[in-house]
Design goal:
This protein starts with a strand and ends in a 14-residue tail after the last strand. It contains 20 helices and 26 strands. It is of the alpha/beta class. The structure holds 5'-O-[(L-methionyl)-sulphamoyl]adenosine. 5'-O-[(L-methionyl)-sulphamoyl]adenosine binds next to strand 2, helix 1, helix 7 and strand 13.
């Protein structure tokens, strides 16, 4: 029997339209599911909408609609968006569905009967944005740090869940299963939160104040707190406790969430499950936020990016690729149109797209529009095949570890290896020499065959484009895992005329090309002395290299994403590929000239210069100790 896997997204509030953050979580989850299916697993994918609570009730009132009519209208926007983004959930759950309400009530009753829910007089600070009471210690200058609003002070009788009783159990769980909350920094954040005594959780709202919720089964004067209702969607969608889906998928439940809802998922949810006698989820996988000019994108703050608008620019699969590739999983990432287009042009148009079109076109021209025969292999082909064999394993490993950006980085590297191979073997030259025909066939076969493997690996992220790419390679469908090994392309397969898969996009003209530096000092001569004011014009900062990849089509250039403490990552190109691999640079603290005019190198934006010291090996890293924070000035 195949291995099972269950992946959920948060269920999204329907108080306003879906934005790029919602699209990100759902696209990442969809890609994970498609990868797992590629690996032969039986994978189930759930998403949906969170439709109760004060925030929704207020939005409905503003829209002058009944809450039910309002949520019926809003949920459609999410449901209809997903197929447009090539997202295919197995199930879409709504918390206003009868089956969900019944399960919430059953579980509340069970926990109440176990004596873990009690009535108490309470006062506290309620943030409507979070739909939560916040402790004094969580407020920053009297405001909710997430929504930057002053919470309402409330005094009322409410029902409480005895969450404090589960603190020791929860800490032990976190200690026993170090990967349970992933990446580790979020686990540590939860452990730090649990260093203070855990409070009991207020799980009701009096109907005198809010009626839009699920009635408590043991007191009809109250409705259920929206988070207690919402979290249970993950289990109610599978017909817990006896449903067949629940039996099959609950033990392998992976929740993918943004870091904003860590506490509810990592603290409230496991305690609720434990109190209800259910086993906790298998893993909580937490990602960072897309930020816009350094601040969080959110409905409440009103600086959101519309996924449909970006889809018009990059195409759906281009947008999916950019989102998965450019966010180092777990960290924040900056969303700009320019970064998105630069990534698209670099990885998709220049690297992969170019590889596909030139290998197909050259084969069509020279081998009667079909895949050539592969002759004897030289070291170059054997090495490439080995890189691809390892590459497929490496990509699987990255996906299992939820390092999706690394998987795509590795696939881009594999594509650039094939482009490098073509550059070296120069089939366009071989084509001019009649005695090299067998060799020409071998080179083109190798390139086409490698491209076929790349198509299989990229399909979970770009399903539609890769279907087209596989047609271009004359394949019947997308390659399966067992087919992702070199040498399986059938010689003689007809190759249809390729359509450009990823036409290049013009980068908006905000930056000009930098002027060529003046060569005003002869080699070896002393540089012209500067006065201190002239020197002070150069801004030197400590940067942390968060990510790095080769620049497609170049043997010299590496493209780094550098954190200068600005709330976004800078794109910087350095000519050090002969000396360093991307892995040598990732995680290094370096000195960056941060006020150079941005320029483009091989079409890739470079917004600064990383300093290296010249040495007999070419260059050395100028390392900065870990205690120095990214963005610190160097003087
Ligand atoms: N309804 C709750 C979740 C209940 S789950 C039982 C909720 N909904 S939400 O509409 O506010 O969605 C929050 C989620 O949207 C985040 O956890 C994340 O998955 C996604 N994102 C919202 N803004 C985001 C960014 N700016 N960047 C990345 N993802 C973000 O909270």
């Amino acid at each position: 029997m195949s291995q099972t896997f269950y992946c959920t997204t948060p269920i999204y509030y329907v108080n306003s339209n879906p934005h790029i953050g919602h699209a990100y979580t759902t696209i990442v989850s969809d890609a994970i599911i498609r990868f797992r299916r590629l690996f032969g697993e039986d994978a189930y994918f759930l998403t949906g909408t969170d439709e109760h609570g004060q925030k929704i009730a207020e939005s409905a009132a503003k829209a002058k609609m009944e809450p039910q009519a309002f949520v019926d209208m809003m949920t459609q926007k999410f449901r209809e968006l997903w197929p447009e983004l090539h997202i295919e959930p197995d199930q879409f759950i709504r918390t206003t569905e009868e089956r969900h309400k019944q399960i919430v009530q059953q579980i509340l009753q069970q926990i109440y009967d176990n004596g873990e829910i009690f009535l108490k007089e309470y006062e506290g600070h309620y943030c409507v944005g979070c739909e939560e009471f916040l402790n004094e210690s969580e407020l920053v200058e009297g405001q909710c740090p997430t929504h930057q609003t002053v919470p309402e002070f409330r005094q009322e009788r409410n029902y409480f869940f005895r969450m404090s009783a589960y603190q020791d159990w929860l800490v032990q769980m976190l200690k026993d299963q170090p990967d349970w909350i992933y990446p580790g920094r979020y686990r540590n954040e939860v452990l730090r939160f649990l260093e203070n005594p855990l409070q009991d959780l207020c799980i009701s709202r009096p109907k005198s104040r809010l009626t839009w919720g699920i009635e408590l089964p043991f007191d009809s004067d109250f409705v259920t707190y929206v988070w207690f209702d919402a979290l249970l969607n993950y289990a109610s969608a599978l017909d817990c406790p006896d449903g067949e889906l629940f039996q099959r998928y609950w033990p392998v439940c992976h929740h993918i969430i943004g870091k904003d809802i860590l506490k509810t998922h990592a603290v409230y949810w496991p305690c609720m499950l434990k109190a209800a006698g259910m086993t906790p989820f298998a893993r909580l996988v937490v990602h960072g936020h897309w930020v816009s000019s350094g601040s969080k994108m959110s409905k409440t703050l009103g600086n959101v990016v519309d996924p449909l608008a970006m889809k018009e620019k990059l195409g759906v699969d281009g947008l999916r690729y950019f989102l998965v590739r450019d966010m180092s999983f777990g960290e924040d990432a900056n969303f700009t149109e320019e970064l998105a287009i630069t990534r698209y042009n670099g990885d998709l148009a220049n690297n992969f797209g170019n590889l596909l079109s030139r290998s197909v076109n050259l084969s069509r021209q020279n081998f009667s529009e079909s895949v050539p025969e592969c002759g004897p292999l030289t070291d170059a082909e054997t090495e490439l095949r080995a890189q691809f064999q390892n590459g497929v394993e490496q990509v699987q490993e990255f996906i299992r570890q939820f390092y999706l950006h690394k998987a795509l980085e590795h696939i881009a590297w594999m594509a650039s290896q094939v482009n490098g191979y073509l550059q070296q073997q120069a089939p366009w030259q071989l084509a001019k020499q009649p005695d090299q025909r067998e060799r020409l066939g071998t080179v083109l076969y190798t390139a086409l065959d490698a491209t076929r493997i790349l198509v299989g690996l990229l399909a979970p992220v770009m399903p539609e484009k890769m279907k087209l790419a596989s047609t271009t390679l004359g394949l019947e469908g997308l390659p399966q895992l067992t087919e992702l090994q070199p040498g399986l392309l059938q010689s003689g397969t007809a190759l249809p005329k390729p359509e450009p898969l990823f036409p290049k996009i013009q980068v908006p003209k905000v930056q000009q090309e930098a002027p060529t530096p003046k060569e005003d000092s002869a080699p070896g001569s002393a540089a012209t002395p500067l006065n201190i004011d002239e020197f002070n014009k150069v801004e030197l900062k400590v940067g942390l290299i968060r990510d790095c990849a080769p620049v497609a089509g170049s043997d010299k250039l590496l493209h780094s994403q550098v954190d200068l403490g600005e709330g976004r990552l800078r794109s910087i190109v350095s000519g050090v590929a002969p000396r360093f691999s991307p892995a040598d640079l990732i995680g290094q603290r370096v000195i960056v000239v941060s006020n150079l005019r941005p320029t483009k190198l091989r079409g890739v934006l470079s917004e600064g210069m990383i300093l290296f010291a010249e040495s007999e090996k070419g260059f050395e890293l100028v390392k900065i100790p870990e205690s120095v924070v990214p963005g610190s000035t160097v003087r």
